[in-house]
Write a structure and sequence with these properties.
alpha/beta, single chain, 21% strand, TIM Barrel, 236 residues, binds iron/sulfur cluster, 7 helices, 8-stranded mixed β-sheet
Length: 236
């Protein structure tokens, strides 16, 4: 149950990107706060910080961008943590923007509501870790794993062409066997999209859990053959 309402939910706004929404020009809205504590998180200021912008600030900006941008990326933090998200996205859709959501998938009821009311067009879903590593990677426990699985089950059954799955790999946290376990789960669920494996990029001024630089290299040769979907490696 979400009980999180903030008068100023947005930490920052990136006015223009061509990298974060496939095939679209977009802005990025960064929601403050998150229900996870991933050690490698590049956005500790956003996760721990206070929001600085309210809904009217966002809508005012977007009114001035109508006809100039194709889409809006909703990121964070974890935007589905914000109680009023469906209402805000409805206002954004009315202006004609496409919406992509980045999410850790732990609020399945919100994800379902957003898709079933056509309030998002595309979802990038973080598959943080296999169940035995989930707490180590995210700092949260079994209940959140179950919520994530509920989201993934829903998406695989109902929204195959509207989402992608991605995992960030730091070799201190995840091994090749963990990725093979995730792949097996995606195959079981009949996932049809692209599975993006993202190599951790070190951040000199610190991550949420002061993650050290990777020493061991991840070996893609140890990743099993997949059927039904593709794997794409980023920054390896
Ligand atoms: S990386 Fe983890 S802690 Fe950071 S915003 Fe994403 S889910 Fe939250």
């Amino acid at each position: 149950m979400i009980d999180h309402y903030l008068p100023r939910p947005v930490y920052a706004l990136t006015p223009f990107t061509m990298l974060d929404y496939p095939q679209k020009t977009a802005c990025i809205i960064w929601f403050a706060k998150c229900n996870m504590r991933c050690a490698y998180c590049h956005n500790p200021d956003i996760v721990d910080g206070q929001g600085k912008m309210g809904e009217n600030d966002i809508l005012g900006f977007l009114i001035r961008r109508q006809g100039l941008l194709d889409g809006v990326v909703i990121s964070g933090g974890e935007a589905t943590f914000y109680k009023n998200l469906p209402f805000l996205l409805r206002q954004i859709k009315k202006m004609g923007f496409s919406i992509k959501l980045d999410s850790n998938g732990t609020y399945p009821e919100v994800i379902k509501e957003l898709f079933e009311n056509q309030l998002i067009d595309y979802l990038a879903l973080d598959y943080k870790a296999s169940p035995c590593k989930f707490q180590k990677v995210t700092g949260v426990g079994r209940r959140m794993w179950d919520k994530f699985q509920e989201t993934l089950d829903y998406l695989c059954a109902n929204q195959q062409d509207k989402f992608e799955v991605r995992t960030t790999i730091h070799t201190e946290l995840l091994k090749e066997t963990d990725i093979n376990s995730i792949i097996a789960d995606l195959e079981t669920k009949n996932y049809k999209g692209v599975y993006y494996l993202q190599n951790y990029q070190h951040k000199e001024d610190g991550t949420l859990g002061d993650m050290i630089e990777q020493v061991k290299k991840f070996n893609p040769d140890l990743i099993q053959e997949v059927s039904g979907f593709e794997i794409e490696y980023r920054n390896f």
